[in-house]
Each structure stands twice: as structure tokens, then as C-alpha cells.
Amino acid sequence: MPPEDKPGNLTQLSGRLLERGALRRTPAGIPVLEFLLAHVSTQVEADVERKVECEMACVAMGRPAQVLLAAKPGDGIRVAGFLAARSLKRRSPILHVNTVEFVEGTENGIQAEK
């Protein structure tokens, strides 16, 4: 199947940074940062508005990980990336972040891309 015919796995989510782990590096020296994002919004489902709240485990590697070092708990961010299993044994999803955008009061609308 050509790449353009394959189902997509693009996830975009905005929210507040709840927790941010310490920056670590892979054996190849690539920066890695895990964090937890809290999302709250109003969505329409079956023609009815409902409040949606969730927490999403995220991981950023490379430049997005370095950019997130400037974030502190409570900061508003918008991220985009793809969902994958956390590990071979833990199949719960984690959002692998490719882009990060700070929202609400950040100077210059800092954005990092892969």
C-alpha cells in the first residue's frame, strides 16, 4: 500500500503541563523528556455538548525535548505527534511529540519541530 493510502496516526492535543520528568539521553545521545499533559475542553458527541477531561502521557525526543525544558507545570502547550504503545510489555498509549507550541503569554510563540 502506498504511504499516502495508509491510515494516519496524527494526534494533536492542547492542555496544561502537569508534570515534567528530568531530561535524559538515549545511548546515542538524543535528549528525551517525558511529561504529562492535562486536557480540558467541550466537545460535541451525538449532537450533545460534553465536557472532556483527560491526562495524556507524552514523550519528546530531540529538539522538542530541549524546548520543553523551558516549560513549567501549569504552562499551556499545544503538541502534535503520534500514538504508540509505551513499551512491549505496557501497551497503554503514549503520545510521541514531534512539535511543541507554547500558548498563552509566551514570547514569540516559541515552536519546535522535529
In what range is the share of β-strand residues?
over 45%
**How many domains would you count in the coordinates?**
1
State mean pLDDT (0 to 100 scale).
89
- Extended strand count: 7
Number of helices: 1
Share of residues in helices = under 10%
Largest sheet: number of strands, sense, barrel closure: 5 strands, mixed, barrel
Shape: globular
Instruction: Quickly give the CATH architecture.
Output: Beta Barrel
Note the run of SSEs as H and E: EEEEHEEE
**Strand adjacency order, main sheet:** 1-3-4-6-5
Describe this structure in words.
It comes from Sulfuritalea hydrogenivorans sk43H. This is Replication restart protein PriB. The chain has 114 residues and is mainly beta. The protein contains 1 helix and 7 strands; from the N terminus they run ββββαβββ. It has one helix spanning 63-68; strands spanning 11-20, 24-25, 31-45, 48-61, 76-85, 93-103, 111-112. Strands 1-3-4-6-5 form a 5-stranded mixed β-barrel. The model is unreliable at 106-114 (pLDDT under 50).
